[in-house]
Design goal:
Layout lengths: L5 H7 L7 E3 L3 H7 L5 E4 L3 H4 L11 H14 L4 E5 L9 H15 L3 E5 L5 H9 L4 E4 L1
Parallel strand pairs: 1-2, 2-3, 3-4, 4-5
Helix pairs in contact: 2-4, 4-5, 5-6
Length: about 140
């Protein structure tokens, strides 16, 4: 069994349901993998795993650590890792640097970012440079 690709998921859009669940750890990803098309490593891990009040203190290193654990545990699900708050809003170049670091260190398939309309140029910048992006509108 091979891992779902961004193209696989894109080709299913509007044709059949896509199952996406959140996983923050190796054991949970291992359990969910056979039931999901996409596993998301969300920055909500700050609250769920670490007991933080919100996602603001979550670092890109935390996302890398948890993202790598989920990628290593999964075999079929496409894995998407959140870009944490403050790591991509400053500039398109900073967003690319953080996204490339997360992808290269985790082996994930895509990154996710909050994408109000003002983030459209950043999303375009990332995708034009080969970074698959899942937007959270």
């Amino acid at each position: 069994m091979s891992r779902n690709s961004v193209i696989d998921i894109k080709n299913r859009k509007g044709k059949e349901p896509i199952v996406c669940l959140t996983a923050y750890t190796h054991p949970i990803a291992k359990i969910l993998d056979e039931h999901c098309d996409v596993l998301l490593v969300g920055d909500s891990l700050g609250m769920v795993i670490y007991g933080m009040d919100n996602t603001l203190p979550v670092s890109h290193q935390m996302m890398i650590n948890h993202g790598a654990a989920v990628v290593n545990a999964s075999k079929q699900s496409l894995v998407v890792v959140d870009l944490p708050f403050g790591s991509y809003e400053g500039s398109k170049e900073k967003a690319f640097s953080v996204a490339a670091k997360i992808i290269s260190r985790t082996g994930c398939d895509a990154v996710k970012l909050e994408s109000p309309s003002n983030m459209a140029p950043t999303v375009k910048f990332l995708t034009e440079r080969g970074i698959p992006v899942m937007g959270h509108v």
